[in-house]
């Protein structure tokens, strides 16, 4: 075990060899319906809880990564939290932001440019809409390249819907198979006290709901919630001072694909096909070795196609793969074990929640929602894969207990 470094000690020189990097603290803020909170308050609440979870002092934090709040996101968040970091990241690539930021932070820590980096997010997406008493606007920009799609009414959900229809056309994927993704996510949410929706649903209920964008009915789509979370990454020297067992960052990958639909080569292939391959290669593991998958699921099709692109099944076989309860907590590949964005929480950018849930599962601290392997042991490997925009970006992180 490496010699512990006091929490108020900062390295100024690069290490002679890359340092190992662990997730040492994770936490959620209050989530779901949090009408009285501000985004800043949710950032602070999640950060305090993650730091308490780690057992380290706040003076160990010398890096911060944040996006989605204010004009100068990491600067404003750092000031609000009373931090003056010497390493920052404000990468913003949609829902994949947090896996990409985790990769950047891990690289910085390994190289000695930071010792402990806090990734933190908070949003009152639901409360903001309620306060304004209007519906959500899910269209994007009428400037730049996107201006050529705006006249056709291409909202975010319409782009995902078109991609899902293409997969159905190419591979015979059925509405029932897509609906089963939502049903299994809801089943996984049943034992999660932080989940916004926990009552069971059926395939027929998913199919019979109000149409939002063909083929997606309401329950094919993520919920809209308030909430935040935080993840603290630290160098291996700090691990023995931590309150919980470390979860190690084994490998990560990132990739961007397109922003205009006309530049997307294949609607049935997401950028996770590249980010996943890179992450697994760098971790030295295979998809078959993974015990748990936490996948961004703003829509049911996202889960299905990302499973294919990460290599858990062959291209075109995602529909049959998600059937028969494979994604359930006691299934062959427990996926979105907290209920995901379809049932647990989705406050705008959910990628950081994937990392929190993966860490809790690997630690064995997921309570009634804990996954165990068929021999009764805790899971050893987890993958968290975030998707941004409309399959525009992807970040994938492989985490392990050993």
Descriptive notes:
With 402 residues, the chain is of the alpha/beta class. The chain folds into 2 domains: 21-129 and 227-247, Thiolase/Chalcone synthase (Peroxisomal Thiolase, Chain A, domain 1), CATH 3.40.47; 142-225 and 249-400, 3-Layer(aba) Sandwich (Peroxisomal Thiolase, Chain A, domain 1). Helix content is 32%, strand content 16%. The chain has 12 helices and 11 strands. The protein has helices at residues 39-54, 73-81, 97-111, 125-132, 156-171, 175-189, 203-207, 272-283, 300-310, 318-321, 340-343, 351-363, and strands at 21-28, 63-65, 87-89, 116-123, 211-213, 216-217, 227-235, 247-256, 292-295, 381-388, 393-400. The strands form 2 sheets. A 9-stranded mixed β-sheet has the order 3-2-4-7-1-8-11-10-9, with helices on both faces. A two-stranded antiparallel sheet has the order 5-6. Helix 8 packs across helix 9. It is globular and about 55 Å long. It starts with 20 loop residues before the first strand and ends with a strand. The model is unreliable at 1-12 (pLDDT under 50).
């Amino acid at each position: 075990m490496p010699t512990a470094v006091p929490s108020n000690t900062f390295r100024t020189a690069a290490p002679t060899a890359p340092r190992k990097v662990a997730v040492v603290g994770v936490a959620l803020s209050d989530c779901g319906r949090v009408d009285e909170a501000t985004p800043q308050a949710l950032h602070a609440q999640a950060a305090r809880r993650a730091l308490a979870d780690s057992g380290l002092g706040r003076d160990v934090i010398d890096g911060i990564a944040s996006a989605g709040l204010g004009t100068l996101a990491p600067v404003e968040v750092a000031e609000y939290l009373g931090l003056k970091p010497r390493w920052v990241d404000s990468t913003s690539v949609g829902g994949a932001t947090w896996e990409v930021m985790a990769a950047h932070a891990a690289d910085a820590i390994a190289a000695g440019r930071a010792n402990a980096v806090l990734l933190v997010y908070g949003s009152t997406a639901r409360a903001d809409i309620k306060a304004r008493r209007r519906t959500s606007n899910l269209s994007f920009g009428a400037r730049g390249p996107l201006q050529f799609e705006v006249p056709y009414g291409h909202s975010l959900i319409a782009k995902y819907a078109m991609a899902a229809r293409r997969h159905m056309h190419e591979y015979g994927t059925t509405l029932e198979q897509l609906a089963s993704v939502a049903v299994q996510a809801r089943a996984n949410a049943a034992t999660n006290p932080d989940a916004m929706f926990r009552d069971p649903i059926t395939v027929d209920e998913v199919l019979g709901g109000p149409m939002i964008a063909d083929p997606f009915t309401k329950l094919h789509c993520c919920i809209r919630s308030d909430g935040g979370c935080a993840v603290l990454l630290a160098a291996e020297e700090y691990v023995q001072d931590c309150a919980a067992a470390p979860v190690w960052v084994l490998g990560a990958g990132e990739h961007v694909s397109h922003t205009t639909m006309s530049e997307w080569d294949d609607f049935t292939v997401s950028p996770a096909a590249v980010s996943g391959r890179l992450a697994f290669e760098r971790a030295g593991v295979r998809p078959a070795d993974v015990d748990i998958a936490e996948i961004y699921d703003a829509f049911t099709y996202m889960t299905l196609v990302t499973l294919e692109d990460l290599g858990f099944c062959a291209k075109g076989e995602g529909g049959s793969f998600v059937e028969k309860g494979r994604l359930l907590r006691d299934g062959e590949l427990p996926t979105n074990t907290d209920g995901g964005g379809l049932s647990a929480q989705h406050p705008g950018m959910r990628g950081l929640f994937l990392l929190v849930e993966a860490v809790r599962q690997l630690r064995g601290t997921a309570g009634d929602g804990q996954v165990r392997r068929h021999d009764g042991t805790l899971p050893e490997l987890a993958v968290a894969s975030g998707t941004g925009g409309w399959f525009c970006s992807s970040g994938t992180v492989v985490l392990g207990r050993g």
